[in-house]
Design goal:
The chain has about 950 residues and is α/β, with parallel strands linked by helices. Helix content is about 25%, strand content about 30%. It contains 20 helices and 56 strands. Strands 1, 2, 3, 10, 11, 12, 13, 20 and 21 form a nine-stranded mixed beta sheet that branches. Strands 25, 26, 29, 30, 31, 32 and 46 form a seven-stranded mixed beta sheet that branches. Strands 14, 16, 17, 18 and 19 form a five-stranded antiparallel beta sheet that branches. It is globular. The N and C termini lie far apart (about 75 Å). The model is unreliable at about 500-515, about 610-620 and about 960-970 (pLDDT under 50).
């Protein structure tokens, strides 16, 4: 077997050349490997599936839609039947989830009856028409407007990239060769065979050619055949949602098809995401993959007809695929009568994916017959399936980590991808030539943060394993460079690094030798400011066994990369850098077990005896599934503190249209690349969003030699602290443009420019006609933080729609007894000092709870809690509940809902009949959403309030007139 990059090493002649490594070309290559033939696959891109296969719905269609007697009908039904066998042999994901085609009126029901008859004529089993109520019984999220549906029991889903990858890998392992970056420029007849010319000048002779060049297959066909075909590229745009919405639909749901296609569908993926799409817009450019604002809006609008809950909320990315629509409206498969030896797989629009196995088998048999080739001895049809950390149980994880500690290092937290999985692909059968190859083969960077956390780590691992400098690494395609420069010794440092996690001054070994079955009093998840403070506070409050776990090898969380000053003024009365602040907190952890480099994969309730000596009532414990390079294990805890921090809002969540170029980073990723990795992300940057980290990065990039063109903020006011605007922008003459936003990105490989539009402050929407193009190679996003609460959600913790964090009371107890939350996991803070102070409260509260559990108490928490509501002018309030028996002061934290001057913050206790008892008020000259406000109140003297309400109201200042008489004056 041989894999090449470019034509270097490629021989001058082969029996068969397959042009194109999309799913059709890869399936055909796999089937050709069954025969005694010398086969070469030529792929123009730097990875497989660079065209329509990658941006595909992933639906294995049943075969009810194609016109009977067509190639589409024949291959769709045959391919659909082959998929389970191929999935078993090749080990790719395949889920038989059924599908529905929904209708909304009598006309649609007539059309569905026609599809039913067409499907039966095509030989499709398991078709039936059901009512709208029956359809909603299967899929409760369906629109109430649905009146009927065609149920297709043979419908299924797969990952199109994985199908192509598994097929080609199996082909290569059976002797097929493949060359990447090998674009074909010309096909010509040469004797009884062909000459295949590459753009680099290499000419290859072949006895037969399989034309699987996707949208370009008509061009190759027309070079050899007088029977001309024409392909119109049709753009299809999609929105992909976070996998937290997976349960909304289990089946693929179509609308009644039209002449333009199968319409906007709603489906889940095999990875657990939900998506809607595609659109269907003809375009001239076969390689243009930019999304459009109009197309993405149309997709959501179309999906709403099926799923009224469809919106842009929880979207993690959008993308475009281009389909090859032929002018014959059917596949073009096999030899043209005037070009024997050329085997077309052309015009492969939907249902091309479903048909690919059958087409591959048929074409391979035709080629073998043409060339007189027999079956190859020793062909191995089976491929070893990939192990995935996220699919392992506890025992499997233990065995995997024992064999290779890299299984214990989770690189991608969103999709639980381990370092071992990344390294496996870097040394696999098919070469990794770009970062996106790792993305598609492992699912790293494919989760909700979309690479915000793991991209810098992946860059480091690739350098260590391959010797490739970060400035040589490309995202996808030539010219899609990731960083403009790195420190000279980057590769050497990456290769010299140790694997064992270390924390200065803190042991990562268990100190007391206790049995794994013995519960900890408190386990704190997250080693940032809040987590370290919580662990120390739990110990100080009497918890005998406290465990602090953090996914990073060094404690500190985000502070590790915040090399600027500004930390510690409130907590330590001293200005510190982020690493210095983290070191101060870490120094307080004496007596706390610390496990760095440890990921928590899940939390669930476990019931055991709460008393340390076996006495007491059965009390609820929490079981945490942990994995680390030292091993995988399950630990029990009487109390858990979630201090898991936050993630940045990524590019996909912003709904920006345009190209998916390299050079687009969240501010945190850019900061990690510069401060932790020694890499410069680009040369000329635009920053979107005026959050604090974005402001700080404007200064940092300027100091490192980048040109920062400006900071653009959607809102009419800055999102960051005033001091950062002065120190990071004003002092460096970097302009801040309020009420502006990025509406499009340009650059097929690396980012080349962005379109920026003015924003209407009232609607917060871009104003058409105000767009200006700004040249840049880097776009840095500072568009807000979102509490990281996947563990909390899986544990059943109630989350607050306003903050994104847990709903808590004043003890920071969540809705699940024994689980507490603090720091940015609870709500986003301005200062690490305040997050650490919140950790103090959560840790102490958790220790008290753990003591009650150990004493055989605390299995239930039935204390009455009073809701805290946000009133006029106020954003979400924390805590959202106050215990009715609370007699001390309660600190209420909130953000103003808008910029205001001369206001008064008020807290009132509201009785069931609406009467109010004022509890606290404070005047403020200026209120801005960027700065948190805090009021301390007591309900000790209030009789049974229905709820508390926090609000911001105008408080006109009183000034004296010339005559000395006071008058009211509103805020300016």
């Amino acid at each position: 077997m041989a894999c090449f990059v470019g034509s270097a090493g490629v021989r001058d002649s082969y029996d068969v050349v397959v042009v194109g490594a999309g799913v059709a070309g890869c399936c055909c290559a796999r089937e050709l490997a069954r025969y005694d033939l010398d086969v070469l696959v030529l792929e123009a891109g730097d990875d497989i599936a660079c065209g329509a296969t990658r941006a595909n719905s992933g639906i294995v269609h049943g075969g009810y839609d194609p016109e009977p007697g067509t190639a589409k009908a024949r291959y769709n039904v045959a391919g659909s039947k082959l998929f389970p066998q191929w999935a078993d042999e090749l080990g790719f994901a395949y889920i038989h989830n059924e599908s529905l085609v929904v209708g909304f009126d009598d006309e649609d029901e007539t059309a569905l009856a026609g599809l039913l008859e067409r499907g039966r004529a095509n030989g499709v089993d398991g078709l039936s028409i059901i009512s709208g109520d029956e359809a909603r019984g299967l899929e409760p999220a369906l629109s109430p407007e649905v009146t009927c549906a065609l149920r297709v029991s043979t419908g299924a889903i797969c990952d199109p990239y994985e199908v192509a990858f598994a097929s080609l890998e199996n082909a290569v392992e059976n002797g097929v060769s493949v060359a990447f970056d090998a674009r074909v420029s010309k096909l010509a007849r040469e004797g009884e065979g062909f000459s295949v010319a590459l753009v680099d000048g290499k000419v290859i002779r072949a006895r037969a050619v399989v034309n699987a060049a996707g949208v370009h297959s008509d061009e190759l066909h027309n070079q050899l055949s007088a029977r001309k075909i024409h392909i119109t590229p049709v753009r299809g745009e999609y929105n992909l949602y976070d996998n937290s919405l997976e349960t909304h639909f289990s089946r693929t749901v179509f609308q009644v098809p039209t002449a333009a296609g199968k319409g906007v569908l709603v489906s889940r993926t095999v990875h657990g995401n939900l998506f809607v799409g595609p659109s269907a817009v003809a375009q001239d450019d076969k390689d243009a993959l930019a999304t459009t604002a109009e197309g993405l809006a149309a997709v959501v609008a179309g999906a709403k007809r099926t799923w009224p809950g469809a919106s842009t909320r929880d979207v993690i990315t959008n993308f475009t695929g281009v389909r090859a629509k032929g002018d014959t409206h059917d596949f073009v498969i096999g030899e043209p009568d005037d070009a024997p030896g050329l085997f077309d797989i052309a015009c492969l629009e939907s249902p091309g994916l479903s048909s690919a196995p059958a087409i591959g088998a048929d074409i391979a048999a035709q080629v073998a017959a043409r060339l007189g080739a027999g079956e190859r001895a020793g062909f191995e049809a089976r491929r070893e399936p990939r192990q995935r950390l996220r699919h392992m149980d506890t025992e499997q994880r233990e065995q995997a980590v024992a064999a290779d500690p890299a299984w214990g290092h989770v690189v991608c937290r969103c999709n639980e991808v381990s370092e071992a999985e990344v390294v496996r692909e870097l040394h696999g059968t098919l070469p990794v030539l770009c970062l996106d190859a790792i993305k598609w083969r492992t699912a790293a960077t494919m989760g909700r943060c979309h690479g915000g956390f793991c991209t810098p780590e992946l860059v480091r691992i690739i350098a260590r394993e391959t010797g490739l400098r970060p400035s040589e690494l490309e995202k996808r395609g030539r010219g899609s460079w990731m960083v403009s420069r790195e420190r000279p010794d980057y590769v050497e440092l990456a290769q010299a690094e140790g694997n064992a996690p270390q924390v200065d001054g803190v042991s990562c070994e268990r100190e007391d030798g206790a049995s794994a079955a013995e519960p900890y009093d408190v386990v704190v998840v997250g080693g940032g400011a809040a987590g370290m403070a919580a662990a120390a506070a739990a110990r100080d409050a009497g918890a005998a066994r406290v465990l602090l776990v953090d996914r990073e090898p060094t404690l500190g969380g985000i502070m590790r990369q915040c090399v600027h000053n500004g930390f510690g003024l409130k907590r330590f009365s001293e200005e510190l850098s982020g690493p210095e602040f983290a070191a101060r907190e870490a120094a307080r952890l004496d007596g706390v077990e610390v496990w760095p480099g440890t990921s928590v994969l899940g939390i669930e309730r476990a019931h055991g005896t709460g008393g340390a000596d076996g006495a007491g009532a059965a009390a609820a414990l929490h079981a945490l599934e942990l994995v680390r390079p030292e091993g995988a294990c399950r630990v029990l805890a009487r109390a858990v503190v979630l201090a898991t921090g936050s993630r940045e809002r990524g590019f996909g969540a912003l709904g920006i249209a345009g190209d998916r170029s390299s050079g687009i980073y969240t501010a945190g990723s850019a900061q990690a690349l510069i401060n932790l990795q020694g890499c410069l992300p680009g040369k000329r940057a635009v920053i979107l969003g005026s959050g604090d980290i974005g402001l700080i990065m404007a200064r940092r990039m300027t100091l490192e030699g980048m040109e920062v063109e400006g900071v653009y903020e959607l809102l009419a006011h800055p999102s960051g602290l005033r001091r950062n605007i002065v120190q990071c922008l004003d002092d460096f003459q970097i302009p801040l443009h309020l009420s502006h936003t990025v509406v499009a990105t340009h650059g097929r490989t690396r980012l080349e420019s962005v379109d920026i539009a003015e924003v209407d402050p009232a609607t917060r929407r871009p104003i058409p006609g105000t767009e200006v193009n700004v040249e840049c190679d880097t776009l840095v996003l500072s568009c807000g933080l979102i509490p990281e609460n996947e563990l909390a959600r899986e544990a059943g913790v109630e989350l607050c729609g306003g903050t994104g964090g847990a709903v808590v009371d004043e003890l920071l107890a969540t809705s699940v007894p024994g689980i507490f939350a603090c720091g940015n996991a609870l709500h986003v803070h301005d200062l690490a000092d305040l997050a650490a102070g919140e950790g103090d409260v959560a840790g102490a509260s958790a220790a008290v709870w753990a003591a009650s559990v150990a004493a055989g108490e605390g299995a239930a928490d039935d204390v009455l809690r009073i809701p805290v509501r946000q009133g006029e002018g106020v954003g979400a309030v924390v805590p959202q509940l106050v215990r009715a028996d609370e007699r001390g002061a309660v600190a209420l934290t909130f953000r103003p809902g808008h910029v205001a001057q001369n206001v008064r913050f008020e807290v009132a206790a509201v009785a069931a009949d609406g009467t109010e008892t004022p509890l606290k008020s404070r005047r403020a000259r200026v209120a801005v959403p960027a700065e948190m406000e805090r009021l301390e109140v007591s309900i000790a003297d209030v009789a049974k309030p229905d709820h508390l309400e926090v609000r911001m109201v105008d408080a006109p200042v009183r000034v004296a007139t010339a005559a000395g008489m006071p008058v009211s004056k509103g805020g300016e």
